[in-house]
Amino acid sequence: MPYEHVPVLLEPALSALDVKPDGIYVDGTFGRGGHSRAILDRLGTHGRLYALDCDPQAVACARELESVERRFTLTRARFSTLGERCTEWGIAGKVDGVLLDIGVSSPQLDDPARGFSFEHDGPLDMRMDFENGMSAAELVNSSPRNILKQIFRDYGEENFAGKVASAIVRERERKPFTRTGELAALIERTIPGRNVGKHKATRCFQALRIAVNGELEELQMALKSAVEVLAPDGVLAVISFHSLEDRLVKRFMQEQSAGERVPAALPLTFEQTESLRLNSATLGAVAAPVKADEAELTANPRARSATLRSARRLARSLTS
Length: 320
Description:
Blueprint: H1 10-17, E1 24-27, H2 34-42, E2 48-53, H3 56-68, E3 72-76, H4 82-89, E4 95-101, H5 106-110, H6 136-142, H7 145-156, H8 161-174, H9 180-190, H10 202-213, H11 215-229, E5 230-240, H12 243-258, H13 270-279, E6 283-286, H14 294-299, E7 307-313
Parallel strand pairs: 1-2, 1-4, 2-3, 4-5
Antiparallel strand pairs: 5-7, 6-7
Helix pairs in contact: 4-11, 7-8, 7-10, 8-9, 11-12
């Protein structure tokens, strides 16, 4: 592959997964296989690694590994279908660890043809699976102003969401957007002030990518499925790259470790209430979040925004 990919938080992720030589693991976001290869290095002859990815280029990379590694199996699919795929593989409820490395990879960012980055002019695409679905250009050129404003506000936390949306609607009447450079230039002209720290288009491009790929909805489904396929004491480890993802992961893990809220009006003692609440919990204590250390940041500055969160499935029977 022509674009280098350096897996982020590699050692912390492996440490969180606590890879057992004969364990069963799932890499829900294969990418270019950095995490997968490291997991395979720790597996013994009876260990198994399964992986998912919907990006055709990532799948091509995985097929090369699959052809020489009998302990590895890949299915081309979105990670939101993790539960279905584990059922097909016959490993639901038996998985010792699930790793999700969320977001766009370095090869995707660095390839202008993918249209993810405002730093490289290319087709305005942004699809993880560039063979299916609506592109960013189609979204930008067809969405009403209020929808664009909502996307930039909710997914990009952009303070000038309405201003950018209005500018896009005016400009596309003259000429539809087809290139990342055109859109980035418009955003830069529209948002007041200077580029300080990061490009003015950063938040809007993030928002469009999330909307095009349905990333938050995908993540919600994947998290739920991941917990369901884990064996007792299995580990869920998630690497996220922006605050929206990280808040979603944090909230999910906290809720799953706390269990269901029991209505205060029920005629139950405190001990009975706590027992009901804890018996409905699926995850144990959530580990403290992990960020890249200085050595990793020096080698890979893109790791700066990465956060790893992990938790173990409670070590009781799934049917109890």
